[in-house]
Design goal:
Elements lengths: L14 H24 L2 E5 L1 H9 L6 E5 L6 H9 L2 H6 L1 H4 L2 E5 H4 L3 H9 L2 E4 L8 H11 L3 E4 L19 H8 L5 E8 L1 H4 L13 E6 L3 E2 L1 H9 L4 H33 L1
Parallel strand pairs: 1-7, 2-5, 2-6, 3-4, 3-5
Antiparallel strand pairs: 6-7, 6-8
Helix pairs in contact: 1-3, 9-12
Length: 266
């Protein structure tokens, strides 16, 4: 399905575009950090796994994947997960590119420009793994970048009871990148308390959020082995996605247990 606005990302961003992007992203991440840690109670486990992966992007590109329970998961989870060095000092070199629904964030030219400056990549749900947005994200990985995706494909309003099968797009990004990216999975609990999924959609304070960062997953050997065996693209994507999904399930169990322990201690 075609987008309602032209493709929002310039081929060669101007200096003004880059400066605006740096200012916007560092400002939003700083505000998100304030909201998560000072107006709410946020606890992060194994944060160093993500920090190490970000710092090693020059050697191996990075994909992060997380569950999706609130319309403000991005950017607020980055306020909680990134340290100040990543937010301020090296923002443009290290900051993520993130998929955003084209029918939500890219419906007007002004909205499209804002989200593009914030490194949002319009994704057309239902258009498959070979749409231009996926190719664009792949080009960022090939430049040693960082791409974040919510592989459930939508906001899960009942993540405690419903586990959504992950989409194969993340498998394509891993399999088709020139250098196989590191994948860091993240599971969070409580973000839907900060921004409830019901009107009037007013951000809340005094809530408890728990985040668990998984260990980095390196699919280099798997991709090489399956391609050497002439496995189909679909088979490779599914194998990668299945492994990420298995890790997701383990993180979900761990995060929910830790969250309940924190709540019980209040």
């Amino acid at each position: 399905m075609p987008m309602k606005v032209p493709w929002p990302h310039p081929v060669r961003p101007s200096l003004l575009w880059r400066m605006n992007s740096r200012f916007l992203m560092s400002s939003v991440a700083s505000f998100s950090r304030f909201w998560m840690y000072y107006l709410n109670r946020t606890t992060v486990y194994n944060q160093q796994s993500l920090a190490t992966a970000i710092d090693h992007q020059t050697r191996q590109p990075l994909i992060t994947v997380s569950n999706h329970t609130s319309c403000l998961d991005d950017p607020w989870i980055w306020g909680a997960l990134l340290n100040w060095n990543h937010i301020l000092k090296n923002c443009m070199h290290l900051m993520r590119w993130s998929f955003a629904a084209d029918d939500v964030c890219f419906t007007k030219s002004s909205h499209a420009t804002f989200f593009a400056v914030a490194r949002g990549v319009p994704i057309c749900r239902g258009d498959g793994v070979h749409q231009p947005s996926m190719d664009y994200a792949l080009s960022k990985l090939n430049n040693r970048g960082w791409v974040h995706t919510f592989p459930e494909g939508k906001v899960n309003t009942d993540s405690k009871n419903v586990f959504i099968r992950l989409k194969w797009g993340v498998g394509r990004l891993v399999a088709d990148a020139e250098i196989t990216p590191i994948v860091v999975p993240i599971w969070h609990v409580g973000m839907d308390g900060i921004l409830p999924n019901k009107k009037p959609y007013i951000p809340q304070t005094g809530k408890t959020v728990t985040m668990v960062v998984g260990e980095a997953m390196d699919f280099s050997k798997l991709v090489l082995s399956m391609k050497s065996s002439n496995e189909s693209d679909e088979t490779i994507r599914k194998a990668i996605t299945d492994q990420i999904q298995s890790e997701f399930l383990q993180l979900k169990i761990k995060a929910e247990q830790l969250h309940e322990e924190i709540i019980s201690q209040k």
